[in-house]
Amino acid sequence: MLKKAYFVGYMTNRMLIGALARSTEDDRDYYGKKRLDMAGMLLAQIFRQQFKKYTDDMRKYIDKELRSSNFKTLTLANALKHEIVTRGIKSALSTGNWGKDKHDNVQKTGVSQTLNRLTFASSLSHMRRLSTPLSKQGKITKPR
To answer: Residues with Cβ < 8 Å from 128, sequence gap 6 or more?
Structure first.
């Protein structure tokens, strides 16, 4: 809570400085203030989700086997389904749909794309693009 209190105080200070015209207001379209999702963080996020799904499936299988009436021995090789993680990462990279929430709705779309290599200028332009995540719900001012 202390960090939140400091942040609220900082934001109030910035607002008052801007309102009293002691400093210029921030430009919301300034690229220096935008956050970038780097490749390592995105891959870590998708791996974390798929690994959680892997462990949950393993736990469900073991619970089901232990509760079954004809339980004699437990074979862990049947519980380990490593293709869950591999399939999840491959589908995220191929479709560009990144991450799912509790209701299996896609969190981000268009994260990965095939690189356009027609000319050097087009590939350079393609690599420099930034996508701004704007939700389709609600009233939001258009990006400039």
So the answer is: none
The torsion region of residue 110 among left (phi > 0), alpha (psi -120 to 50) and beta comes to left
Q: How far apart are CA 134 and CA 137, in angstroms?
A: 9
Residue 47 burial class via C-beta count within 10 angstroms: exposed 0-12, middle 13-18, buried 19 and up: middle
Q: Would you state the pLDDT for residue 2?
A: 93
Q: Where are the beta strands (DSSP E) in 1-144?
A: 98-100, 106-108
**pTM (two decimals):** 0.64
- For residues 66 and 79, give the distance between their C-alpha atoms in angstroms, rounded to a whole number: 12
What's the CA gap between 143 and 23, in Å, rounded? 24
pLDDT at position 4: 95
Q: Which of the 8 DSSP states describes residue 144?
A: -
